[in-house]
Specification:
alpha/beta, Rossmann fold, Sulfate adenylyltransferase, 18 helices, globular
């Protein structure tokens, strides 16, 4: 279950608390998080009917809101409150009782509030026609240590919401998203022309996959080829240097260090990216192989690809000038595009399914079991580079289309391609795949007992156990860990067992 928290908006009447709170709720829904908005006026109508506006009654009203907010957060939801809550002592009391409490002070000067007040309440209060009016005839005590201060007299709604979301990401309550950096039109033409005038570095399809996913926000919180601190931390702990979960290094490898600070990335004569080189450092292939693949055996396809790559890693921000293609462009959706479809369909929850091969009957069963607890399924086949004996992406895509046409509820399944290349890193790649699907808008992710495995390099259920090291709150996604899928001869149908933490039935009962 994802970790809950409380966002407490406070400020004078008309400052914009409810407007920002509603926009924040929409953004959270877009990210797949459930939230409840406790608006001051609605609470007065339903929860605090009969209370007046004395300090005692105001404090009682705020304590009731605080109690409900704690209950919502305790169950893994997000509580957003938008009430004046004028008195500092009771706000601080609620803060002390509430884990993961984030206070947002919505500031606005009185003269601006008077100008905005279409009902004329402030003018009546100033004229003495309304008693106990906060900010005029009753005090409002500004927060001293609010996590966020929004000044709506000078900020746009978008700026205020961005400020709140940024703080929630920095506090670890929300996974950090990365804005798309995918130029088009005249900008793309200009950047391609610039790339042709830069020193060139030849890359391959794997590098194209990585740079595109970085630029599309699919690898958030990673938004650039990793520096040495992140690289070493990922190998050592399965986390970035700042502690955020990440299990596979995202690096641009080279045989030599370029002398220029800005280089064009090319596949043959086609510009596919521009890299601003921040650093270059030597990598340790043997150490990396053991940390990521659990073996130094060159027969492992991931180890072999690593050993065939350059020893130098280049870090820095990248601009993608080309997109990997599956051959089915209508399914090549970016993370933002998938999240948009999810929103259009009204899905609050979406489960992702990773596959590099056509879906077979056991896969179909797992997906339909998952659909019993979520709104939608993202069938998200990996179409980047795989090992030579895997079934080609074009064949796999035709199989998926057949399933959608004849075997799945059309309004509950979305087929989109995942442009990543396959590492075959077993448990480390299971976490990596979960993070990628979170960035595509998934709230749940299916992991089998040998996820992304190859050969006998990984212990049985290693892909399940690795998730014990990461909480759903910090991953930003719930993991559905399925064990065995089998045909039950007693009842004549498919069945599965799941680990208890999956929150789906563990045992099949005929």
């Amino acid at each position: 279950m994802s970790q809950g928290f409380v966002v407490w908006f406070t400020g004078l009447s008309g400052a914009g608390k409810s407007t920002i709170a509603n926009a924040l709720q929409a953004e959270l829904t877009h990210r797949g998080r459930h939230s409840e908005l406790l608006d001051g006026d609605e609470v007065r109508t339903h929860l605090s009917k009969g209370l007046g506006f004395s300090k005692e009654d105001r404090d009682t009203n705020i304590r009731r809101i605080g109690y409900v907010a704690r209950v919502v957060a305790r169950s893994g939801g997000i509580a957003i409150t938008a009430a004046i809550s004028p008195y500092r002592d009771v706000r601080d009391e609620i803060r002390g009782q509430t884990p993961n409490f984030v206070e947002v002070f919505v500031r606005c000067p009185l003269d601006t509030l008077v100008e905005r007040d279409v009902k004329g309440l402030y003018r009546k209060a100033i004229a003495g026609e309304i008693a106990n009016f906060t900010g005029v005839s009753d005090p409002y005590e500004e927060p001293l240590h609010a996590e966020v201060v929004c000044d709506t007299s000078i900020e746009t709604l978008e700026e205020s919401v961005a400020k709140v979301v940024d703080k929630l990401e920095r506090l670890g309550h929300l996974p950090r998203q990365v804005a798309e950096r995918l130029p088009s039109g005249d900008e793309l033409d200009a950047l391609r022309a610039e790339a042709r005038g830069l020193p060139r570095l030849q890359v391959g399809q794997r590098e194209l996959s990585d740079l595109f996913m970085l630029a599309a926000g699919a690898l958030a919180p990673v938004d650039a080829f990793m520096g040495s601190d992140d690289y070493l931390s990922v190998l050592e702990s399965g986390r970035l240097a700042n502690g955020e979960p990440f299990t596979i290094p995202i690096v641009l490898r080279a045989d030599a260090v370029p002398t220029a600070g800005r280089v064009g990335l090319f596949i043959d004569d086609r510009p596919v990216g521009i890299l601003d080189v921040a650093d270059a450092y030597a990598t340790d292939h043997a150490r990396e192989a053991v940390a990521v693949y659990a073996t130094e055996d060159d027969a492992h396809p991931g180890v072999r690809a690593l050993n065939d790559s350059g020893r130098w890693a280049l870090s820095g921000q990248v601009m993608a000038l080309a997109r990997p293609s599956s051959g089915f462009p209508e399914f090549d959706l970016t993370p933002a595009e998938v999240r948009a479809v999810k929103g259009q369909r009204g899905w609050k929850t979406m489960v992702g399914f990773q596959t590099r091969n056509p879906v077979h009957r056991a896969h179909e069963y797992l997906q339909k079991v998952a659909l019993e607890i979520v709104d939608g399924l993202l069938l998200h086949p990996l179409v980047g580079e795989t090992k030579g004996d895997d079934i080609p992406a074009s064949v796999r895509m035709r199989c998926y289309q057949e399933l959608l046409d004849g075997y799945y509820p059309a309004d509950r399944v979305l087929l989109a391609t995942n442009p990543a290349w396959m590492r075959y890193a077993g448990p480390k790649e299971a976490v990596f795949h979960a993070i990628v699907r979170r960035n595509y808008g998934c709230t749940h992710f299916i992991v089998g007992r040998d996820h992304a495995g190859v050969g006998n390099y990984y212990d049985t259920y290693a892909a399940h156990r690795i998730f014990d090291a990461y909480s759903p709150a910090e991953l930003g996604i719930d993991i559905l860990r399925f064990e065995h899928t089998f045909y039950c001869s007693a009842c004549g149908r498919k069945a599965a067992t799941c680990r208890p933490s999956s929150r789906v039935p563990r045992w099949h009962v005929c």
